[in-house]
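Aim 2 progress. For Prepilin peptidase A24 N-terminal domain-containing protein, the working sequence is reproduced below.
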Amino acid sequence: MIYFLLGSCLGSFLCVVAQRLPLKQDFIFSRSCCDHCRKTLRFWELIPIISGLFLCFHCQRCGKRISFISWLVEIIYGGIFYFCCTQSSTFMQFIALVWLTAATLLSLTDYFYFLVEPKILYPLHLLLWGGMFYFHQPFYVSTFLLLVILGIFFWFSLRDSMGMGDWLLLAFWVPWLTLEQFSLLLFVASLSALVVFLGNYLFRKQPPQRLPFVPFLSLGLFVAYFL
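Predicted structure tokens for this construct:
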């Protein structure tokens, strides 16, 4: 429970980082505020998970609706942090924490801005690669070559289906995955994206023009590598 609660607090902070870092805004010293009226949030409005429920996802000052995504991320990252801290070895704790934190942050920047933020992508994945090499993990050249072939195919035939940031992110992930894991990652990502697309079409009667794909890739990564 302590791991989950600590992870929920970190999840709330990750939301702030993902919202402010691409806009070059301070996310360390500036207080959290309402997105609508810009009033500084009081301490009881910042309690992870509980505050959102207590306030019914509305700002107490202006009455406007508070984003549901922050509350959802607090729950999801609470579970992720618990999962990372309960791994059986120091290696798996380190790799899971770095890899899944990077995936969470990049999923959020993709959700907010359709952007794979370089200031998050490069430092965290250099740390991940350093850990992989330090712990002597196998580097799968064959899987990376398959990604290159797929990238060339999509570039010439389905260029708009995935952004360059998605391919760059996969380039950091794929060398550490077997062919089976990579295939499972793509299957889970594509299937979950299709489900969300059809859900939007059925319930909103209008399919979304664009879907952020990094959250689905992150789900595929979790299923393929960590489960």
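DSSP finds nine helices and no strands in the chain. This observation will guide construct design in the next reporting period.
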